[in-house]
Design a protein that fits this description.
This protein has about 425 residues and is an alpha/beta fold. It has 2 domains: about 290 residues, TIM Barrel (Alpha-Beta Barrel); about 120 residues, no CATH class. It is built from 17 helices and 11 strands. It has an 8-stranded parallel barrel, surrounded by 7 helices. Helix 14 links the parallel strand 9 and strand 10. Helix 10 runs parallel beside helix 11, helix 14 crosses helix 15 and helix 16 packs across helix 17. The longest helix has 18 residues. The chain is elongated and about 85 Å long. The N and C termini lie far apart (about 55 Å). Bound molecules: 3-hydroxy-3-carboxy-adipic acid and copper (II) ion (CU). 3-hydroxy-3-carboxy-adipic acid binds next to strand 4, strand 5 and strand 6.
Length: about 425
């Protein structure tokens, strides 16, 4: 067992503890298969670990070493990365996701985990098709194993989850949880197949809190219905202290709650207590880091994304150039999205073309010329050759057909982007 595990007894959990599971649930994403990558390598895992710890995450769930020799080996690298940050960032607890099975438990304890996240299916579907055990047998095994581990390793952090908890009838769930409650620190309530709705989450959290006032609660919500974020928010507001998230919400099927989406929404709801200890400005960078590892962009449905500050329609582009608040209502800067962009295309109007050619490219042109160029551009942009961007087309029209001259910029400022020359204090805005 980790000689550091005692630290948990000395740690006062914050109002909201994220339990990141990017390296467990996250590695179950099909996106890794889409890119022929299949798993994160040791270097990826080290980078993800360091990023999460720097962000302020104190609990990370990892695969049990029994899952594969690779996972077993990589755990040591992850642990080293964690240990290297203790002086700077404090202690982060590494939790093994284990079946309610002695072999899983033994391997995890030997490897030096700080805690065990037990799970076993409790719904009828899990009982029948997953492990074939009856409720009595589940109760017997869960009680025997958790009480045994608790007795022998009093400092390990223990969590128990009835997998598919939201399809498990309440009576069945509490029959198991009642027996395990004396031995664990937390109960998980995974919405394994993404069927929960916010109202049901609120009721469940209240009922569990009433029945187990001394056991902390942990949520894990899948995105199948598109409710993962909303269910997590509802759970937190109902008093759930621990939530499982992943970076970008990656996970089995459509994934689970995205860490930055949850924290962003708690910020918008003015739940500032819940944000204690998280480096919110690192939200967008951490999303970009993971997207890069998946060989993709930050998904457009992720709230903390550049997509939410990207504008394509002429009407939007014009208004945003006047004042970004017209179409950018949320404080994404606080979460590290410090740029915004305007994409040139068939929907762009003369305003943005004027802006692009004058402020970004430094041509001398008046509004009249911009309107003429816009008319030509709008016709031709539908027939761009491969590898030619709308910006290339505009440059060609401006230079070759209109023979526009460049603005003379003072020595030392050539090649720089000029912004908002007619206005004071323009924002940094990318147009391409
Ligand atoms: C899994 C299922 C799980 C477990 C969650 C938990 C789920 O992939 O093993 O242990 O709390 O959604 O039920 O992710
Ligand atoms: Cu899950």
């Amino acid at each position: 067992m980790s000689d550091q595990a005692f630290r948990f007894r000395e740690y006062t959990p914050r109002p909201l503890e994220i339990i990141d599971t990017t390296l467990r649930e996250g590695q179950q994403t099909s996106l890794l298969h889409d890119h022929y990558k299949y798993f994160f390598n040791a270097q990826d895992k080290i980078e993800i670990t360091r990023a999460l710890i720097t962000y302020g995450v104190k609990f990370m769930e990892l695969f049990a070493p029994i899952v594969s020799p690779r996972e077993k080996e990589d755990f040591q690298a992850i642990k080293e990365a964690r240990d290297g940050l203790i002086t700077q960032k404090g202690y982060t607890f590494l939790l093994a996701h284990v079946r309610t099975h002695p072999a899983d438990v033994e391997a995890a304890i030997d490897a030096g985990f700080d805690g065990l996240n037990f799970y076993i299916g409790t719904s009828e579907q899990s009982r029948r098709y997953n492990h074939g055990k009856k409720l009595d047998e589940i109760v017997r095994r869960a009680r025997a194993l958790t009480s045994d581990v608790r007795r022998n390793y009093p400092d390990l952090i223990l969590r128990f989850s009835g997998e598919d908890a939201f399809r498990t009838p309440w009576e069945d769930l509490i029959r198991v949880y009642d027996e395990v409650a004396p031995y664990v620190d937390r109960f998980g309530t995974p919405d394994t197949v993404g069927v929960a709705t916010p109202g049901v989450v609120r009721e469940r959290v209240a009922a569990l809190q009433e029945r187990y006032p001394h056991v902390a609660l942990e949520g894990h919500f899948h995105e199948d219905r598109g409710f993962a974020l909303y269910n997590s928010l509802e759970a937190v507001r109902s008093g759930m202290q621990y939530i499982n998230t992943t970076i970008l919400g990656i996970g089995e099927r459509s994934g689970i709650t995205s860490m930055t989406a949850l924290l962003f929404n708690l910020y918008l709801e003015k739940e500032y207590d819940m944000l204690e200890g998280y480096t919110l400005r690192a939200s967008y960078p951490i999303n970009v880091m993971l997207a890069d590892k998946l060989h993709s962009l930050v998904p457009s449905r992720e709230p903390v994304s550049l997509t939410n500050r990207t504008h394509t329609a002429g009407v939007h582009q014009k208004a945003v150039l006047n004042d970004a608040s017209t179409y950018e209502a949320l404080p994404l800067d606080m979460f590290g999205v410090v740029e915004s962009e305007i994409l040139l295309g068939p929907l762009s109007g003369w305003n943005v073309i004027h802006y692009f050619l004058k402020e970004i490219k430094g041509f001398m042109l008046d509004e009249q010329a911009a309107r003429q160029i816009a008319r030509i551009f709008k016709k031709r942009v539908y027939n761009l050759g491969e590898g030619v961007s709308p910006a290339d087309l505009l440059m060609e029209i401006a230079e070759k057909e209109f023979r526009l001259e460049r603005i003379q910029t003072p020595e030392g400022f050539q090649g720089r982007v000029l912004q908002m020359m007619d206005r004071r204090n323009g924002p940094r805005r990318e147009v391409r």
